[in-house]
UniProtKB/TrEMBL annotation:
Keywords: Cell membrane, Lipoprotein, Membrane, Signal. Its main location: membrane. It is found in: Cell membrane. The lineage of its organism: Bacteria, Bacillati, Actinomycetota, Actinomycetes, Kitasatosporales. Residues 1-22 form the signal peptide. It is a lipid-anchor. This is BMP family ABC transporter substrate-binding protein. PANTHER family: ABC TRANSPORTER GUANOSINE-BINDING PROTEIN NUPN, TRANSCRIPTIONAL ACTIVATOR PROTEIN MED. Residues 47-334 form the ABC transporter substrate-binding protein PnrA-like domain. InterPro entries: BMP_lipoprotein, Peripla_BP_I, PnrA-like.
Amino acid sequence: MRRVSRIAVAGVATATLTAALAACGGTSNDAADSGDGKSKGIALAYDVGGKGDQSFNDAATRGMEKAASEFKYGSKAVEPTDGESDADKVQRLQTLAKAGYNPVIGVGYAYAPAVAEVADKFPKTTFGIVDDETIDKKNVADMVFHEEQSSYLAGVTAALTTKSKTVGFVGGVDIPLIHKFEAGYKQGVADTNPKVKVVSQFLTEKAEDGGFASPDKGKTAAEGQIEDGADVVYHAAGLSGQGVIEAASAAKVWAIGVDSDQYSQDALKAYKQYILTSATKDVEGAVYNLAKSVQDGKPETGVVRASLKTGGVGLADSNPDFKGNAKLQAALEKATTGINDGTIKVKTS
């Protein structure tokens, strides 16, 4: 993951799918095998938004690329298709496992049914899934995060930065995972200054309706919150968050990014002046660590949970206005200590 602050220490048919795999990066000799545990490389199956979301999927990509470079083997990343079914996801994962990739990682909770099914068919292949902890298989690693903890710190930041005493939250999809972000953020705001109002909006009820992949929806939502007085807007909306950040920049108010250090991303450099910080989660590290565990012959399995204490979540400090605010940094350090020692219990809903 890119630089984070010291407080963070953070298709549908087989023929179509095969063609899609061949068009992606990675090695060119994809001779199929039986999934015998000998890896030809690491493979990712992207969540909605795909590569280039400046967030969740891009963090996974960095982890894949780091593993491929260090272990000197291949890599493969496959994009999702619009309106795909669980059966499509199953076919995608099966094709990757049969080709000899190990580990094979589903990037996002939507892959849970497919990972659970395919893991049984390829017991010598290690599978990973990001943001789901429901799969109890001997060859599956459930890579999850305490997003509510970093969101609490984002809430502290918003409460100490706002001048209007109104801040916003834009969630991509109305699901329990994104409620964790909202809950931590609201608690951080309230614990810091109960007079600050939080206005919230979820873009869609289902992921397939574009909540994580529609910058226009994010922009419209943020514009509405800014019109209602919000001068800090935090998003947990994947690619849709680009629209949130664009709206904040246009209105010259603060945006708080998510998952990756969005201040440092080239695709968002036109707006970076108004990206105060980002609530990061080390998807990059989780992906790399799983690949390393396979390479070392001791694959991670079961629930692998990252927290503020482990450095798996945190706040990015690339923006000088954030890093140089002594009062804010002192408050964040105090909050971090409280979360880590248990005196602050952050809600998840």
